Amino acid sequence: DIQLTQSPSFLSAFVGDRVTITCRASQGINSHLAWYQQKPGKAPKLLIYAPSTLQSGVPSRFSGSGSGTEFTLTISSLQPEDFATYYCQHLNSYPLTFGGGTKVEIK
Amino acid sequence: QVQMVQSGAAVKKPGASVKVSCTASGYTFTSYYIHWLRQAPGQGPEWMGMIDPRGGGTTYSQKFQGRVTMTGDTSPSTVYMEFSSLRSDDTAVYYCARDVADNENGYYGLFDCWGQGTLVTVSS
After folding, report:
1. Do B47 and A46 touch (CB under 8 A)?
2. B115 and A95 in contact by Cβ < 8 A?
3. Which of B22, B112, B113, B118 best probes binding to A when mutated, by most A CB atoms within 10 angstroms?
4. Do the chains contact at B111 and A87, CB–CB below 8 Å?
5. For B69-88, b where at least 16 C-beta lie within 10 A, e where not — what string?
6. In a structure prediction context, what are the per-residue pLDDT tens digits for chain B, which is 124 residues long?
């Protein structure tokens, strides 16, 4: 199975900060990666995939990059509604797996 | 709009089975695979398997093979996930999700719409 390791697992930031989250895969997965945002009590929401295509309706302050084994999600200017937990997920093959999550909190 | 609506919360005893439904609307039901995932408290999502509503074909995670069964019904546009031999560590929120991945180009499991989640609690 492909293991995904996210870092950091927790980060504290101010509104307006630039934030970067990293996801590393245990083997090469080309560009087959997606990012989701999850707020408490809600289902995950698709943000970006493959690895830089923005899902419809997602603000342009979110961006994704990477290929092979290392990927990043960047929020260019953190907004109050962005405080949530973010997960990466590979799209390469079954079984599908997710990273352990990065919780973004207000400083 | 595209919607996935799941059945309500369930409380089960260890060893019992649970069957969760997921009714899709707003799109052609047979055009997209539907997957089931679960999320234990404080954990990330965990993939359980998928069903092709067009023909009923399934692929299950090896972790759950033998305990999970996914079925579908085109009228109404509903898929079901039955999970047996429940244990306390199966307590989780169970989600269905629509898959819009481009399988022909080697992509699998891109989830653009999720159900609201069904809490399954396993407790004696």
Report:
1. no
2. no
3. B112
4. no
5. bbebeeeebbbbbebeebee
6. 999 999 999 999 999 999 999 999 999 999 999 999 999 999 999 999 999 999 899 999 999 999 999 999 988 899 999 999 999 999 999 999 999 998 888 888 999 999 999 999 999 9
